Amino acid sequence: MAQAGKGPTSLSLPRLDALLSGGLRRATLTELVGAPSTGKTTLCLAAAAAAAARGATVFFLHTGAAFPAPRLAALAAAALGEPPQRAGGGGGLSPALEAALERVTVAPAADARSAVAALDAHLAAGHRPALIVLDSAATALDADLGGGPAGAGVAHALARSLKRAAAFLPAAALATVHELRPAGGRSPTPALGRGWRPQAGARVALARAPARAAPRARAAVVLAGPGSGGAAVFELPWS
Fold first, then answer.
1. Can you list the alpha helix ranges (DSSP code H) found in 54-194?
2. Among residues 85, 136, 163, 212, which is most buried (max CB within 10 A)?
3. How far is CA 112 from CA 24, 59, 138, 153, 161, in A?
4. What is the CATH number of the domain that holds 177?
5. What is the pLDDT of residues 157-190, one digit of tens each?
């Protein structure tokens, strides 16, 4: 089963889905921007789990040392309405949870070029994911970005590859980016420079919510499309 439905890909977070006019738009690259520990990876895992639980397939490009498979299993179990203990350990996995996890293909990506190659190979093998995730674009590009035209070109090529795949399938594409905080009190900006910045059809800035909110709450601000922008506070599971 390659895809489930033709509308936006819901994140199963009603307030954030509302900001995005129903979820992640198909044929569009959505960028998650935020400082460390603002929930970027958790949101990617939650999006993958929610899509897989609905029967959609997911291609997840992971740039970290080890993919957090137990967190994905726990989030998928929650999306299926199963008790958390079914996500691993003594009792094993339910058939529904096993099926959902099998719909998520995880590929390591040491740098931008290997990320593009892995995505191209996945599509060439006949797979048609409904959701493509890159966590994180910044890590994938660290080995390639040098601040000059060559680095900007690599960033542009990676974004173009994600957008092309998303448009062809069509699928939703989601990529995480850390933010830079310039001196002088200026607003933080995505850290991948000119080659990347214009590529996102929607940009979601994540930050920790004020202390009066729940401990795991996150604030999200839509900075570009699909609507006129807005903000919401929501709570991420397992953050």
1. 69-79, 95-102, 112-124, 137-142, 149-168
2. 136
3. 23, 16, 9, 11, 10
4. 3.40.50.300
5. 888 999 999 999 999 999 998 865 545 555 555 5
